[in-house]
Protein backbone atom coordinates (compact mmCIF):
# COMPACT_ATOMS: atom_id res chain seq x y z
CA UNK A 1 0.00 0.00 0.00
CA UNK A 2 1.29 3.45 -0.93
CA UNK A 3 1.44 5.88 2.00
CA UNK A 4 -0.67 9.00 1.60
CA UNK A 5 1.17 12.21 2.58
CA UNK A 6 -0.21 14.04 5.58
CA UNK A 7 -2.46 16.81 4.17
CA UNK A 8 -1.75 19.03 7.18
CA UNK A 9 1.88 18.42 8.22
CA UNK A 10 2.68 19.27 11.84
CA UNK A 11 5.78 19.61 13.98
CA UNK A 12 5.94 15.86 14.61
CA UNK A 13 5.70 14.78 10.96
CA UNK A 14 8.11 17.23 9.30
CA UNK A 15 11.87 16.82 9.14
CA UNK A 16 13.59 19.94 10.45
CA UNK A 17 16.96 21.22 9.18
CA UNK A 18 18.30 21.73 12.72
CA UNK A 19 17.49 22.02 16.40
CA UNK A 20 15.82 25.03 18.00
CA UNK A 21 16.39 25.41 21.73
CA UNK A 22 15.17 28.99 22.05
CA UNK A 23 11.62 29.19 23.38
CA UNK A 24 9.51 32.14 22.30
CA UNK A 25 7.21 33.62 24.95
CA UNK A 26 3.92 31.67 25.08
CA UNK A 27 1.92 34.77 24.11
CA UNK A 28 4.27 35.99 21.38
CA UNK A 29 1.71 35.82 18.56
CA UNK A 30 -0.83 37.79 20.57
CA UNK A 31 1.85 40.43 21.16
CA UNK A 32 2.73 40.54 17.45
CA UNK A 33 -0.95 41.02 16.67
CA UNK A 34 -1.14 43.88 19.19
CA UNK A 35 1.92 45.51 17.63
CA UNK A 36 0.58 45.42 14.08
CA UNK A 37 -2.81 46.63 15.29
CA UNK A 38 -1.15 49.55 17.08
CA UNK A 39 1.51 50.32 14.48
CA UNK A 40 -0.46 49.40 11.35
CA UNK A 41 -0.61 52.84 9.77
CA UNK A 42 3.06 53.56 10.37
CA UNK A 43 4.05 50.13 9.06
CA UNK A 44 1.96 50.56 5.91
CA UNK A 45 3.33 54.04 5.25
CA UNK A 46 6.96 53.01 5.77
CA UNK A 47 7.25 49.40 4.65
CA UNK A 48 4.65 48.97 1.91
CA UNK A 49 4.88 52.41 0.28
CA UNK A 50 8.50 53.42 0.99
CA UNK A 51 10.94 50.78 2.25
CA UNK A 52 11.18 47.64 0.15
CA UNK A 53 8.12 48.55 -1.91
CA UNK A 54 10.24 48.41 -5.08
CA UNK A 55 11.31 44.86 -4.17
CA UNK A 56 7.75 43.77 -3.42
CA UNK A 57 6.63 45.11 -6.80
CA UNK A 58 9.66 43.70 -8.60
CA UNK A 59 9.07 40.18 -7.32
CA UNK A 60 5.31 40.37 -7.84
CA UNK A 61 6.02 41.32 -11.47
CA UNK A 62 8.44 38.40 -11.78
CA UNK A 63 5.82 36.06 -10.32
CA UNK A 64 3.18 37.27 -12.78
CA UNK A 65 5.58 36.96 -15.72
CA UNK A 66 6.53 33.39 -14.80
CA UNK A 67 2.88 32.40 -14.54
CA UNK A 68 2.05 34.02 -17.88
CA UNK A 69 5.02 32.35 -19.53
CA UNK A 70 3.73 28.97 -18.36
CA UNK A 71 0.16 29.79 -19.39
CA UNK A 72 1.33 30.77 -22.88
CA UNK A 73 2.84 27.30 -23.33
CA UNK A 74 -0.52 25.62 -22.85
CA UNK A 75 -1.62 24.77 -26.38
CA UNK A 76 -5.11 23.83 -25.16
CA UNK A 77 -5.65 27.41 -23.97
CA UNK A 78 -4.57 28.74 -27.36
CA UNK A 79 -6.85 26.34 -29.27
CA UNK A 80 -9.84 27.18 -27.07
CA UNK A 81 -9.22 30.92 -27.40
CA UNK A 82 -9.18 30.72 -31.20
CA UNK A 83 -12.37 28.63 -31.16
CA UNK A 84 -14.08 31.26 -29.01
CA UNK A 85 -12.80 34.07 -31.22
CA UNK A 86 -14.24 32.36 -34.31
CA UNK A 87 -17.58 31.68 -32.64
CA UNK A 88 -17.11 27.91 -32.70
CA UNK A 89 -17.18 27.81 -28.91
CA UNK A 90 -19.07 29.98 -26.37
CA UNK A 91 -16.92 32.56 -24.60
CA UNK A 92 -16.31 31.18 -21.09
CA UNK A 93 -13.19 33.15 -20.11
CA UNK A 94 -11.49 36.34 -21.29
CA UNK A 95 -8.62 36.16 -23.74
CA UNK A 96 -6.59 38.45 -25.98
CA UNK A 97 -5.38 37.69 -29.49
CA UNK A 98 -2.47 39.53 -31.07
CA UNK A 99 -2.56 40.79 -34.67
CA UNK A 100 -1.02 37.55 -35.89
CA UNK A 101 -3.59 35.43 -34.07
CA UNK A 102 -1.34 34.40 -31.18
CA UNK A 103 -2.93 34.13 -27.74
CA UNK A 104 -1.72 36.69 -25.21
CA UNK A 105 -1.95 34.84 -21.87
CA UNK A 106 -4.13 36.10 -19.04
CA UNK A 107 -4.28 34.93 -15.44
CA UNK A 108 -8.04 35.25 -15.09
CA UNK A 109 -9.51 32.72 -12.68
CA UNK A 110 -6.24 31.73 -11.09
CA UNK A 111 -6.19 31.51 -7.31
CA UNK A 112 -3.68 33.22 -4.97
CA UNK A 113 -3.02 33.20 -1.23
CA UNK A 114 -0.96 35.82 0.59
CA UNK A 115 -0.15 35.31 4.26
CA UNK A 116 0.83 38.48 6.09
CA UNK A 117 -1.01 40.48 3.45
CA UNK A 118 -1.23 43.66 5.54
CA UNK A 119 -3.43 46.22 3.84
CA UNK A 120 -3.25 44.36 0.52
CA UNK A 121 -0.64 46.56 -1.15
CA UNK A 122 1.26 46.25 -3.28
CA UNK A 123 1.26 42.49 -4.04
CA UNK A 124 -2.41 41.54 -3.81
CA UNK A 125 -3.30 44.80 -5.50
CA UNK A 126 -1.18 43.74 -8.48
CA UNK A 127 -2.64 40.23 -8.52
CA UNK A 128 -6.19 41.58 -8.37
CA UNK A 129 -5.29 43.76 -11.35
CA UNK A 130 -4.57 40.54 -13.25
CA UNK A 131 -8.13 39.29 -12.44
CA UNK A 132 -6.76 36.65 -10.07
CA UNK A 133 -8.98 35.40 -7.24
CA UNK A 134 -7.19 36.17 -3.98
CA UNK A 135 -7.27 35.29 -0.29
CA UNK A 136 -5.45 37.70 2.00
CA UNK A 137 -4.64 36.56 5.53
CA UNK A 138 -3.17 38.64 8.34
CA UNK A 139 -3.05 38.25 12.11
CA UNK A 140 -3.88 41.95 12.53
CA UNK A 141 -7.53 43.02 12.56
CA UNK A 142 -6.49 46.58 11.73
CA UNK A 143 -4.62 45.45 8.63
CA UNK A 144 -7.53 43.34 7.39
CA UNK A 145 -9.92 46.26 7.94
CA UNK A 146 -7.58 48.45 5.89
CA UNK A 147 -7.53 45.88 3.08
CA UNK A 148 -11.32 45.71 2.94
CA UNK A 149 -11.46 49.50 2.85
CA UNK A 150 -9.00 49.68 -0.05
CA UNK A 151 -10.70 47.02 -2.16
CA UNK A 152 -14.48 47.30 -1.63
CA UNK A 153 -15.43 46.23 -5.16
CA UNK A 154 -13.22 43.16 -5.19
CA UNK A 155 -14.35 42.24 -1.67
CA UNK A 156 -18.03 42.48 -2.58
CA UNK A 157 -17.57 40.34 -5.68
CA UNK A 158 -15.52 37.77 -3.71
CA UNK A 159 -12.55 38.24 -6.01
CA UNK A 160 -10.79 39.23 -2.78
CA UNK A 161 -11.51 37.36 0.45
CA UNK A 162 -9.90 38.50 3.70
CA UNK A 163 -9.29 36.56 6.92
CA UNK A 164 -7.89 37.75 10.26
CA UNK A 165 -6.03 34.62 11.28
CA UNK A 166 -2.77 33.05 12.40
CA UNK A 167 -1.22 31.63 9.24
CA UNK A 168 -0.49 28.36 11.07
CA UNK A 169 -4.23 27.81 11.60
CA UNK A 170 -4.98 27.82 7.86
CA UNK A 171 -6.29 24.64 6.22
CA UNK A 172 -6.85 24.22 2.49
CA UNK A 173 -7.41 21.29 0.12
CA UNK A 174 -4.44 20.06 -1.91
CA UNK A 175 -3.73 21.86 -5.20
CA UNK A 176 -5.92 24.84 -4.28
CA UNK A 177 -3.66 27.72 -5.38
CA UNK A 178 -1.65 28.79 -8.41
CA UNK A 179 0.51 30.97 -6.16
CA UNK A 180 1.29 31.44 -2.47
CA UNK A 181 2.97 34.63 -1.22
CA UNK A 182 4.64 35.10 2.19
CA UNK A 183 6.65 38.33 2.42
CA UNK A 184 7.98 39.37 5.83
CA UNK A 185 5.63 36.90 7.52
CA UNK A 186 7.50 33.60 7.94
CA UNK A 187 10.09 35.42 10.05
CA UNK A 188 7.47 36.02 12.78
CA UNK A 189 7.02 32.25 13.25
CA UNK A 190 9.21 29.98 15.31
CA UNK A 191 11.65 28.16 13.07
CA UNK A 192 9.95 24.76 13.38
CA UNK A 193 6.68 26.34 12.25
CA UNK A 194 8.41 27.90 9.23
CA UNK A 195 9.35 24.44 8.00
CA UNK A 196 5.82 23.14 8.54
CA UNK A 197 4.36 26.07 6.63
CA UNK A 198 6.62 25.41 3.62
CA UNK A 199 5.40 21.80 3.57
CA UNK A 200 1.80 22.98 3.67
CA UNK A 201 2.36 25.59 0.96
CA UNK A 202 3.87 22.94 -1.30
CA UNK A 203 0.78 20.76 -0.88
CA UNK A 204 -1.63 23.69 -1.37
CA UNK A 205 -0.03 24.64 -4.69
CA UNK A 206 -1.24 23.22 -7.97
CA UNK A 207 1.41 21.45 -10.04
CA UNK A 208 3.30 24.26 -11.71
CA UNK A 209 2.28 26.74 -9.00
CA UNK A 210 4.65 29.35 -7.59
CA UNK A 211 5.76 30.22 -4.05
CA UNK A 212 7.06 33.76 -3.44
CA UNK A 213 8.56 34.32 0.01
CA UNK A 214 11.45 35.93 1.87
CA UNK A 215 13.35 35.48 5.13
CA UNK A 216 16.45 36.84 6.95
CA UNK A 217 19.72 35.56 5.50
CA UNK A 218 21.35 35.27 8.90
CA UNK A 219 20.45 32.25 11.01
CA UNK A 220 18.86 33.02 14.36
CA UNK A 221 16.81 30.93 16.79
CA UNK A 222 14.83 33.88 18.02
CA UNK A 223 15.17 37.60 18.51
CA UNK A 224 12.83 39.96 20.31
CA UNK A 225 12.52 43.64 19.44
CA UNK A 226 10.53 45.48 22.11
CA UNK A 227 10.87 48.98 20.66
CA UNK A 228 9.73 48.54 17.04
CA UNK A 229 9.39 52.01 15.51
CA UNK A 230 10.61 53.31 18.88
CA UNK A 231 7.26 52.64 20.54
CA UNK A 232 6.39 50.58 23.60
CA UNK A 233 3.54 49.12 21.57
CA UNK A 234 6.05 47.86 19.00
CA UNK A 235 6.96 44.31 20.10
CA UNK A 236 8.17 41.79 17.53
CA UNK A 237 9.61 38.29 17.40
CA UNK A 238 11.90 37.27 14.52
CA UNK A 239 13.63 33.98 13.72
CA UNK A 240 15.24 32.30 10.71
CA UNK A 241 16.94 29.07 9.67
CA UNK A 242 19.26 31.17 7.54
CA UNK A 243 19.77 30.91 3.81
CA UNK A 244 21.58 27.58 3.61
CA UNK A 245 19.18 25.57 5.80
CA UNK A 246 16.00 27.20 4.52
CA UNK A 247 16.91 26.62 0.89
CA UNK A 248 17.81 23.05 1.75
CA UNK A 249 14.21 22.59 2.95
CA UNK A 250 12.83 24.21 -0.20
CA UNK A 251 14.81 21.94 -2.51
CA UNK A 252 14.12 18.83 -0.42
CA UNK A 253 10.40 19.47 -0.91
CA UNK A 254 10.97 19.27 -4.66
CA UNK A 255 10.60 22.94 -5.52
CA UNK A 256 12.47 24.29 -8.52
CA UNK A 257 14.12 27.55 -7.46
CA UNK A 258 13.41 30.16 -10.13
CA UNK A 259 14.93 33.16 -8.31
CA UNK A 260 17.05 33.47 -5.16
CA UNK A 261 18.50 36.90 -4.39
CA UNK A 262 19.80 38.64 -1.27
CA UNK A 263 18.95 42.30 -0.68
CA UNK A 264 20.08 44.57 2.15
CA UNK A 265 23.22 46.16 3.55
CA UNK A 266 23.67 43.81 6.48
CA UNK A 267 22.92 46.51 9.02
CA UNK A 268 20.25 46.84 11.68
CA UNK A 269 18.12 49.13 9.52
CA UNK A 270 18.49 47.09 6.32
CA UNK A 271 19.40 43.49 7.29
CA UNK A 272 20.07 41.05 4.48
CA UNK A 273 16.88 39.35 3.33
CA UNK A 274 16.66 36.41 0.91
CA UNK A 275 13.91 36.75 -1.73
CA UNK A 276 12.81 33.50 -3.40
CA UNK A 277 10.44 32.40 -6.14
CA UNK A 278 10.11 28.61 -6.25
CA UNK A 279 8.00 26.47 -8.57
CA UNK A 280 6.25 23.20 -7.83
CA UNK A 281 7.24 21.21 -10.93
CA UNK A 282 4.87 19.35 -13.19
CA UNK A 283 4.68 17.79 -16.63
CA UNK A 284 1.36 19.34 -17.58
CA UNK A 285 -0.29 22.71 -18.06
CA UNK A 286 -0.32 25.12 -15.13
CA UNK A 287 -3.95 26.13 -15.65
CA UNK A 288 -6.11 23.84 -17.81
CA UNK A 289 -8.89 25.61 -19.68
CA UNK A 290 -11.61 23.85 -17.72
CA UNK A 291 -10.44 25.60 -14.54
CA UNK A 292 -11.26 29.01 -16.03
CA UNK A 293 -14.97 28.27 -16.38
CA UNK A 294 -15.84 28.86 -12.74
CA UNK A 295 -13.98 30.42 -9.85
CA UNK A 296 -13.13 27.98 -7.05
CA UNK A 297 -15.37 28.46 -4.04
CA UNK A 298 -14.61 25.65 -1.59
CA UNK A 299 -11.74 26.35 0.79
CA UNK A 300 -10.95 25.96 4.46
CA UNK A 301 -9.30 28.49 6.72
CA UNK A 302 -10.74 27.69 10.14
CA UNK A 303 -10.49 24.13 11.47
CA UNK A 304 -8.38 21.23 10.15
CA UNK A 305 -11.49 19.09 9.62
CA UNK A 306 -13.82 21.82 8.40
CA UNK A 307 -14.11 23.19 4.88
CA UNK A 308 -15.58 26.66 4.71
CA UNK A 309 -16.98 28.16 1.47
CA UNK A 310 -15.63 31.53 0.39
CA UNK A 311 -19.12 32.97 0.83
CA UNK A 312 -19.03 31.99 4.51
CA UNK A 313 -15.67 33.73 4.88
CA UNK A 314 -17.15 36.83 3.31
CA UNK A 315 -19.95 36.71 5.86
CA UNK A 316 -17.38 36.36 8.63
CA UNK A 317 -15.58 39.41 7.25
CA UNK A 318 -18.73 41.52 7.46
CA UNK A 319 -19.45 40.68 11.10
What does this entry look like structurally?
The protein is of the alpha/beta class and 319 residues long. The chain has a single domain, classed as 3-Layer(aba) Sandwich (Rossmann fold). Helices cover 34% and strands 21% of the residues. The chain has 9 helices and 13 strands. It has helices at 28-47, 53-72, 75-86, 123-129, 141-150, 152-156, 191-204, 242-252, 310-318; strands at 96-97, 103-104, 111-115, 133-138, 160-164, 177-182, 205-216, 220-225, 236-240, 256-263, 273-279, 298-299, 308-309. It has a 7-stranded mixed β-sheet, sandwiched between helices. It has a two-stranded antiparallel ribbon with strand order 1-2. Strands 8-9 form a two-stranded antiparallel sheet. The protein is globular. The N and C termini lie far apart (46 Å).
How would a crystallographer describe the biggest sheet?
Answer: 7 strands, mixed
Report Rg: 20 Å
Number of individual domains: 1
Strand order of the largest sheet: 5-4-3-6-7-11-10
Question: Beta-sheet strand percentage?
Answer: 15-25%
* Run of helices and strands: HHHEEEHEHHEEHEEEHEEEEH
Q: Give the CA-based shape.
A: globular
Distance between the termini: 46 Å
Q: What's the name of the CATH homologous superfamily? A: Vaccinia Virus protein VP39
Poorly predicted regions are 284-319
CATH architecture verdict: 3-Layer(aba) Sandwich
| CATH-defined topology | Rossmann fold
How much helicity do the residues have? 25-40%
Helices and strands in order, then pairings?
Layout: H1 28-47, H2 53-72, H3 75-86, E1 96-97, E2 103-104, E3 111-115, H4 123-129, E4 133-138, H5 141-150, H6 152-156, E5 160-164, E6 177-182, H7 191-204, E7 205-216, E8 220-225, E9 236-240, H8 242-252, E10 256-263, E11 273-279, E12 298-299, E13 308-309, H9 310-318
Parallel strand pairs: 3-4, 3-6, 4-5, 6-7
Antiparallel strand pairs: 1-2, 7-11, 8-9, 10-11, 12-13
